[in-house]
Amino acid sequence: MAAEFALPMPAEALIPHRLPMRLIDRLLSFADGEGTVEAAVGGDHLFLDDSGFLEDVALVEILAQAYAAVKGFADLQQGGAVGQGFLVGIRRAQLFGKARVGDRLEVAIRTLAAIEGFAIAEGEVRRGGEVLAAANLKLWVPPAGPMGEEKK
């Protein structure tokens, strides 16, 4: 039987990342393998450059963490534990703008396919109505127990 969890939910409960590498703040919405995540760009952000802009690579990592949050929430709803996953590929990455200190980013992520431990997802990072980045991700989600403990 699926458990019920209230949204928004802090990202720390859904992904194995911890500060300073945790780049997302909370899962805002979830339905059928897709969701929306929020990420704030604070002055102490790990990927800020000297001008106060977020390095481009951070937007891809934010997308990957958004997928992890959606997957973690789905696992919890099904009575499982939050596990680990690994970004193994990036396709069709497009960067349209830069995030900066003070921005509140909204990340939409959707699972396109999941086969034998691999998943394909597509997502966008937005600031308000402006799309800053979009990409398709390939992820490996090994069969595991809580936070990556191998199943025996």
What is this structure, in a nutshell?
The chain has one helix at residues 56-77, and strands spanning 9-10, 26-31, 34-40, 86-95, 104-115, 118-127, 130-140. It is mainly beta.
Named CATH architecture? Roll
Measured by DSSP, the beta-strand proportion falls in 35-45%
* Gap from first CA to last CA: 24 Å
CATH superfamily: Hotdog Thioesterase
Question: What is the structural class?
Answer: mainly beta
Q: Main beta sheet: strand number and arrangement?
A: 7 strands, antiparallel
In angstroms, what is the radius of gyration? 15 Å
Uncertain spans: none
**What's the CATH class, please?**
Alpha Beta
Number of helices: 1
The number of E-state strands comes to 7
Shape: globular
State mean pLDDT (0 to 100 scale): 93
* H/E element sequence: EEEHEEEE
Count of domain modules? 1
**Helix fraction bin:** 10-25%
CATH fold group: Thiol Ester Dehydrase, Chain A
Strand order of the largest sheet: 1-2-3-5-6-7-4
Structure notes:
This protein is mainly beta and about 150 residues long. It has a single domain (about 10-150), classed as Roll (Thiol Ester Dehydrase, Chain A), CATH 3.10.129. It is about 15% helix and about 40% strand. The protein has one helix and seven strands. The protein has one helix at about 55-75, and strands at about 10, 25-30, 35-40, 85-95, 105-115, 120-125, 130-140. A seven-stranded antiparallel β-sheet has the order 1-2-3-5-6-7-4, covered by helices on one side.
